[in-house]
User: Which sequence fits this backbone?
């Protein structure tokens, strides 16, 4: 082989090597992840945007990972999208996560065993807000006064609708007798303000912008959060043991003069089992090392802390999340260790 031919081969080989390295780097730069949230008027969306923002800021340069958050109909659609590979992470209600993992309700016989928990985020506070004419006693059983009237129970494929129907059914309230409207948080608040509906179901972290707007526009003397008695909590928990007592402190909403006794369930961030360990580990680590940033995004995140990160999770942890928690000295029970 002459020198010219040898040189050509070396140059070609070098070019191919460079192309492969460049291609590998380019592929690494394209690690883009999507987080499914819910409608813009609730808590999921701003918190999801906050998580995506801080994760991108911290991980883009060194680890070549970027994250973005998208709106959705909520938990129901989020499970479907993560199932189809349309999104990588999703925020879910504890109830919906439990149903999907166990294969109950709409997932009967088809459990979503590909799901893995990343973290409990904050509590999803049940908020049934109605006009005073409906709230004759102020208790959740006043929902029976909505028979034949318009009530927004959440988008059709949302966790809001499912949790609302689950709660009402557990209490013997027949929601089928209501003129149900399937609206997101913002549209629900607007419809309530315009008197197109008599009540709305808004489970979310508090304060919730849609409810804040409703209180500010309609006035705290004209609408009311319906409350839950201890007996109500017991009945609801016997159906699905994910709810606990929650008190919305006075002053949370404009003109709210007294505490509101309601209930709450955990919200959680989930991912699929096939997501790279490093990705989930770094996202989990970034969230908990930058809680002050998330606290500026939404007040609901102020309850987030590493000690309650695995509380109430309905499915096993992703190994990446488990690795971080173990580093932080968190004792992980067997039921949360992925097999």
Assistant:
């Amino acid at each position: 082989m002459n020198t010219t031919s040898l040189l050509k081969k070396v140059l070609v080989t070098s070019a191919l090597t460079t192309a492969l390295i460049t291609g590998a780097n380019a592929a690494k730069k394209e690690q883009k992840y999507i987080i499914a949230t819910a409608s813009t008027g609730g808590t999921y969306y701003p918190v999801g945007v906050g998580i995506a923002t801080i994760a991108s800021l911290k991980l883009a340069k060194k680890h070549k990972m970027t994250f973005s958050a998208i709106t959705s109909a909520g938990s129901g659609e989020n499970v479907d999208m993560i199932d189809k590979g349309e999104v990588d992470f999703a925020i879910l209600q504890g109830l919906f996560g439990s149903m999907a993992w166990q294969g109950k309700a709409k997932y009967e016989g088809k459990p979503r065993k590909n799901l893995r928990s990343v973290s409990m985020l904050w509590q999803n506070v049940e908020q049934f807000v109605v006009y005073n004419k409906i709230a004759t006693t102020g208790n959740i059983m006043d929902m029976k006064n909505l028979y034949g009237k318009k009530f927004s129970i959440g988008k059709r494929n949302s966790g809001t609708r499912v949790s609302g129907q689950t709660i009402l059914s557990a209490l013997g309230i027949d929601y089928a007798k209501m003129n149900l409207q399937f609206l997101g948080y913002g549209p629900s608040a607007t419809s309530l303000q315009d008197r197109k509906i008599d009540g709305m179901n808004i489970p979310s972290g508090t304060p919730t912008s849609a409810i804040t707007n409703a209180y500010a526009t309609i006035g705290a003397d004209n609408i009311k959060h319906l409350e839950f008695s201890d007996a109500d909590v017991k009945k609801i928990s016997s159906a699905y043991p994910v709810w606990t007592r929650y008190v919305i402190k006075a002053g949370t909403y404009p003109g709210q003069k007294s505490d509101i006794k309601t209930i709450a369930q955990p919200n959680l961030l989930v991912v699929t089992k096939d997501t790279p360990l490093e990705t989930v580990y770094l996202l989990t680590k970034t969230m908990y090392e930058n809680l002050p940033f998330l606290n500026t995004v939404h007040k609901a995140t102020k309850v987030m802390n590493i000690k309650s990160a695995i509380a109430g999770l309905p499915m096993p942890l992703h190994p990446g999340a488990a690795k971080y928690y173990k580093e932080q000295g968190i004792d992980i029970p067997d039921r949360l260790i992925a097999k």
Remarks:
- DSSP finds eleven helices and eleven strands in the chain.
- The chain has two domains: 12-16+23-122+268-336, 125-265.
- The longest helix spans residues 3-29.
- Residues 135 and 221 are 12 Å apart (CA to CA).
